[in-house]
Design brief:
The protein is mainly alpha-helical. It contains eleven helices and four strands. Helix 6 runs parallel beside helix 9 and helix 7 runs parallel beside helix 10.
Length: 218
């Protein structure tokens, strides 16, 4: 009888473990990096560093996930852990220094090939900045200070080239306008705004009437 009870308990533990594994797989398709639940998208707390590495390698699915993060903590094993910080993880610096800083000089395809990535459009990097502004308002100062190349690319309404591509410019202009709007609207950080307006091309954007929203091909 005792042996039977032990066997039954063992079977129950095995079934529970299998159910937990299946549940985890359902919410973390990126090898348990990413958790998608009804409350939002999270990066598993054990894998923040690995996520940043994959981002720097131009991983398309990881980059896409980073544009959809929730501000909520990660609920796992009965404990709430902080969701990944785009600034502290180095992802924000990689976006600005590693990628967008090169938007005037390199083609997107060459840049992605060099890092071994599969990202399809650099507009997702602008959306990562948008998410940083939303979730970590203190990052506005860093973004404003290092966004110069992006401003020059997107505000050049004559050439309309982003990574030497009109197609990528078309894809990027709307999230870029949203980024600028979010950075200056209801901003209590005067340093970020003052830094932003000093960039070459910013005033053409500000006074263009439609904020550069005319995206018809030239």
């Amino acid at each position: 009888m005792v042996s039977s009870n032990k066997k039954k308990r063992g079977q129950q533990r095995k079934a529970a473990k299998q159910q937990t594994t299946a549940s985890t797989s359902a919410v973390s398709p990126e090898n348990q990096l990413v958790w998608r639940t009804p409350n939002g998208t999270y990066i598993h707390p054990n894998h923040h560093t690995l996520t940043a590495i994959r981002f720097r390698l131009g991983n398309g699915s990881v980059t896409d996930v980073l544009t959809k993060l929730t501000s909520e903590d990660v609920p796992t094993q009965g404990i709430s852990w902080p969701n990944i910080s785009l600034d502290q993880s180095g992802i924000l610096s990689s976006t600005l220094h590693g990628f967008l800083k090169k938007c005037e000089d390199e083609t997107f395809e060459a840049l992605i090939s060099n890092v071994g990535g599969d990202l399809k459009s650099p507009s997702l990097w602008i959306k990562v900045l948008l998410k940083a502004v939303e979730l970590e308002p203190s990052s506005k100062v860093k973004i404003a200070g290092q966004i110069g190349p992006l401003v020059r690319c997107m505000c050049n309404d004559t050439n309309r080239l982003f990574f030497k591509s009109n197609k990528h410019w078309q894809e990027g202009i709307l999230p870029f306008v949203q980024l600028i709007s979010d950075m200056i609207s209801n901003s209590t950080d005067k340093k970020a705004v003052n830094t932003l307006v000093k960039h070459e091309g910013y005033f053409q954007l500000s006074f263009s009437g439609d904020f550069g929203m005319n995206t018809d091909p030239i």
